[in-house]
Design goal:
The protein has helices at about 15-35, 70-80, 95-115, and strands at about 5-10, 35-55, 55-70, 85-95. By secondary structure, the chain is α+β, with helices and mostly antiparallel strands. The protein has one domain: Ribosomal protein S6/Translation elongation factor EF1B (Alpha-Beta Plaits, 2-Layer Sandwich), CATH 3.30.70.60. It has a four-stranded antiparallel sheet with strand order 2-3-1-4, with helices on one face. The model has no long low-confidence stretch (mean pLDDT about 90).
Length: about 120
C-alpha cells in the first residue's frame, strides 16, 4: 500500500537556477522510477535559514508531496544524504487530516492565482 508523504528539502545557495532545476528533476525521477506518484510540488525559492548550516545563511527551498511505498523512504533519504547540493531535508508521512489540509491549501492557492490573473 502506498502512503502519502511530504518532503521539504533545502539546496545550497551557491547553485545556479538551472542547477537547482536539474537537482529537483533528479529527485522527482527517483520517486517515479521507484513506483511513487508525484502529487504536488512547490518551489519556495531562496529563503533565509533560521540558523547557519555549513556556514550558509540562505538556501533554495522545495517541497514535494507524493505517494510511495514505505520501504522507499529509506532509500530516498539516503539519496538526499549522498547529494552534496542538499543541506537539509525532512520527510513526514501525512495522515488523513494532513492530506485533507494540504488539498484545501492547494485549492486556496489555485483560487488566489486565478484571481490575480483576472
Amino acid at each position: 500500500m502506498l502512503n502519502q508523504y511530504e518532503t521539504v528539502f533545502i539546496f545550497t545557495p551557491v547553485l545556479s537556477e538551472p542547477q537547482v532545476k536539474e537537482a529537483v528533476k533528479k529527485f522527482k525521477s527517483i520517486i517515479t522510477e521507484n513506483g511513487g506518484e508525484m502529487i504536488h510540488e512547490e518551489d519556495w525559492g531562496m529563503k533565509k535559514l533560521a540558523y547557519p548550516i555549513q556556514k550558509k545563511s540562505t538556501g533554495f527551498y522545495h517541497l514535494f508531496e507524493f505517494k510511495a511505498d514505505p520501504a522507499f523512504i529509506t532509500k530516498f533519504e539516503t539519496d538526499f544524504r549522498r547529494d552534496e547540493r542538499v543541506i537539509r531535508f525532512m520527510t513526514v508521512k501525512l495522515d488523513k487530516y494532513a492530506i485533507a489540509y494540504s488539498e484545501k491549501r492547494r485549492k486556496l492557492q489555485k483560487a488566489k492565482t486565478e484571481k490575480k490573473e483576472d
